[in-house]
Amino acid sequence: MKVSDLFVKALENEGVEYIFGIPGEENLDLLNSLRHSTIKLILTRHEQGAGFMAATYGRLTGKVGVCLSTLGPGATNLVTPAAYANLGGMPMLMITGQKPIKKSKQGRFQIIDVVNLMKPITQYSKQIVNGNNITSTVRESFKIALYERPGAVHIELPEDIAREEVDGELFYVHSPRYPVARDESLHNALKMMYEAKMPLVLIGAGANRTRIGSAMKDFIEKLGIPFFVTQMGKGVVDEFHPLYLGTAALSDNDYLHCAIDRADLIINVGHDIIEKPPFFMREGGTKVIHMNFSPSSVDSTYFPQLDVVGDIACNLTALTKLAEKQEAWDFSYYMRVKDESQSHIVKYFKDERFPILPQRVVKYIRDVLPKDGILTLDNGIYKIWFARNYKCFMPNTLLLDNALATMGAGLPSAMAAKIVHPEKKVITVCGDGGFMMNSQELETAVRLQLDLVIVILNDSAYGMIKWKQEGMGFENFGLEYNNPDFVQYAKAYGATGYRPTSCEDFASTLEKAVKSKGVHLIDLAVDYSLNHEILNELLQNKTCLV
């Protein structure tokens, strides 16, 4: 059969449901092969949107998300999504086209070395030069993309190779089996736990990727050890659980760090060094047990005293069976810190000022979304407020990026979430700057008839950098701009737009939009005036409880 037909069959063999992207003339054979496939092509308005959607599909399903572009500029537009997926641990395959490699009459037109461009930001990048290798290359790509730590892979298919005739067989697809830790490691972990007076559990991004919620919950509840999470570890265990202390949205100086600094042992489950450190280790300070699929990478801020390496869920289950709650453990201080932290978090939930405080936005969205509803965030200063203040009932119900921390991913991520989970309510919160970086995907969302709510926090500026600028003592300069009329902008795409004029108006508008069909955009004026006062001054100068 034709190579492009075999390529599609290999993708079907891997269970691919969707390909997100924008084809070019170099992809036309592949596009024609897709016409008769079970795989659905989702045409986007920019390759970046396609890449973010494919990565989010991978994050939510644990399967490989697939995106497609042509050569040259189409391929370079996938660079940011490649980094987003690779740093974020999201399995994704990028397929790019290329001019004929055996005989071409177009010289160097549009040609760059995409394979080598992608190598530093993917786990695998290869050009198909022989159609007989297509099925083995696809199988190898999917294995690499899926194995812990998952990430981005890339295949380039030249147009002359795509139309060649070949014989080929599909490869058997099997799931990976990970080893478990040796008994010696588990007993060493028990020894450290029993010697501690105030152990603490940290849940990181790796725990969210690998679906260990029930094993983690059993461990915490049997031993009664309080836990906290990183931004990308949110939701592994229900954050309304009485033993939940909070989220390490900052690296230090938050109220939560009063508890972290008092701990004599942190059991760090699913640590991913890509995230900003949730705490800093110091020589002679708190001891750390590292539980993950791979050993810890030692640096000046993270040097665990013990690595428990292997399948996280299996090792947690084994440790839970062996361990017993210790009478010497004392968690009363942690509970006092939790109460103190919570009192500061809820302090602004009822503030009626308008433009609205980001803390109040968090409260309204948490109130309106059901337990299994999905919230995606673009990147901006509001991400800190959501990470600190928004509690998750379930894994992967708050999708934020604390790895590449790119702008422009919020809307495409929400679209992918709705495609994967059409039965769930989905809201995306974007800054006005991040929204405009991929706002053209509004057309895609409307065309796909998605039920989606977009909340734009509008301050006509790059708010995160303004906060940093103020914190460094610089004058306000170079970060403000004008926005389009977002209500009319939504209407132009066939969506519904709103512009609330009070907190009460926003609350009723949000509830109406979440319950309605179609794409709804809310242009919400936001007040960031307390960012510096709280994050730079109040937290920096706080005094921990005695």
TrEMBL record:
EC top class named in words: transferase
Keyword Transferase among record annotations: yes
Any one annotated GO CC term: acetolactate synthase complex
A GO BP annotation: L-valine biosynthetic process
Keywords: Thiamine pyrophosphate, Transferase
Thiamine pyrophosphate enzyme N-terminal TPP-binding domain boundaries: 1-115
Membrane-spanning segments: none
The EC number(s) this enzyme carries: 2.2.1.6
UniProt keyword annotation of Repressor present: no
InterPro entries: DHS-like_NAD/FAD-binding_dom, THDP-binding, Thiamin_PyroP_enz_cen_dom, Thiamin_PyroP_enz_TPP-bd_dom, TPP-bd_CS, TPP_enz, TPP_enzyme_TPP-bd
GO molecular function: acetolactate synthase activity; flavin adenine dinucleotide binding; magnesium ion binding; thiamine pyrophosphate binding
Residue ranges occupied by any Thiamine pyrophosphate enzyme central domain in the UniProt entry: 187-319
Superkingdom, taxonomy of origin: Bacteria
A Pfam family matched in the record: TPP_enzyme_C
Residue intervals of the Thiamine pyrophosphate enzyme TPP-binding domain: 378-523
Family statement: Belongs to the TPP enzyme family.
This protein's name: Acetolactate synthase large subunit (EC)
Natural source organism: uncultured Sulfurovum sp
